Amino acid sequence: MQALPQLRGDSPFPPTDQALEYPNGLLAVGGDLSAGRLLEAYRRGIFPWYEEPQPVLWWTPQPRSVLFPEKLHISRSLRKTLRRANYALSVDQDFEAVMRQCAQLRGDGLGTWIGDDMLAAYCDLHYIGHAHSIEVLNQQGDLVGGLYGVALGGVFFGESMFSAETDTSKIALVGLVHIMRRGGFRLIDCQVESEHMNSLGAESISRLDFEAHLDQTIDAAHDPGLWRLPANCGELL
């Protein structure tokens, strides 16, 4: 593997076309998870993914998995789940808990990429209004599904999602798309292709096309008041 550019202090990210083919999209190593560094990365379609306590690894995969909000696919079974209206929804009410659930359920015995440093960094982004969470609660009021990510301009950069009950991460995604459509967001970044996201309507586009979407929308303004949802999942249909 060729030597990776090392980020130190405020050194800039290298051009994204220098990312490795294998591992797919690995661009640079080092630097920190300060809000400024993270926002600079997302503006260019770069995100951190690593296992603490190793140095931060920065990625920009080729191709890129995205979901255009108008192309969300709601299956018949998911539609039935929504109609039953057994789940309550909230936005930005328990951001840290959503991250912790994602870390717990994404762990595979080899560790998780959502460590303490990542948790602190994204909670900081949440505090300054750039990171958001959607929570799904059952009838007992327990947090049983959700997602979180970073909103910049007309793009939501999805980071992770979790389900503790059937379809609850999908309910969170339907809620997110509800907000995206209302706010005129262009796309949801899903990072790397997965069967799960493909079943919901995600597709792969080239890195160049993804970056073109960013260039067109990253400076768009959106109303902070958009981040709200109906109290019950049945109202999303």
UniProtKB/TrEMBL annotation:
Location, primary (coarse class):
cytoplasm
Query: Where in the cell does this protein reside?
Result: Cytoplasm
Name the Gene Ontology molecular function terms of this record.
leucyl-tRNA--protein transferase activity
UniProt keyword list = Acyltransferase, Cytoplasm, Transferase
Top-level EC class: transferase
Single Gene Ontology BP term?
Answer: protein catabolic process
Please give the superkingdom of this protein's source: Bacteria
EC number(s) in its UniProt entry?
Answer: 2.3.2.6
Q: Name one GO cellular component term.
A: cytoplasm
Catalyses which reaction(s): N-terminal L-arginyl-[protein] + L-leucyl-tRNA(Leu) = N-terminal L-leucyl-L-arginyl-[protein] + tRNA(Leu) + H(+); L-phenylalanyl-tRNA(Phe) + an N-terminal L-alpha-aminoacyl-[protein] = an N-terminal L-phenylalanyl-L-alpha-aminoacyl-[protein] + tRNA(Phe); N-terminal L-lysyl-[protein] + L-leucyl-tRNA(Leu) = N-terminal L-leucyl-L-lysyl-[protein] + tRNA(Leu) + H(+)
Tell me, in a sentence or two, what this protein's role is. Functions in the N-end rule pathway of protein degradation where it conjugates Leu, Phe and, less efficiently, Met from aminoacyl-tRNAs to the N-termini of proteins containing an N-terminal arginine or lysine.
The record ties this protein, via PANTHER family, to: LEUCYL/PHENYLALANYL-TRNA--PROTEIN TRANSFERASE (PTHR30098), LEUCYL_PHENYLALANYL-TRNA--PROTEIN TRANSFERASE (PTHR30098:SF2)
Q: What NCBIfam families does the record tag this protein with?
A: aat
Per the record, the similarity remark reads: Belongs to the L/F-transferase family.
UniProt name for this protein: Leucyl/phenylalanyl-tRNA--protein transferase
Q: Which organism is it from?
A: Pseudohalioglobus sediminis
Task: Give the lineage.
Answer: Bacteria, Pseudomonadati, Pseudomonadota, Gammaproteobacteria, Cellvibrionales
Gene name in the database record: aat
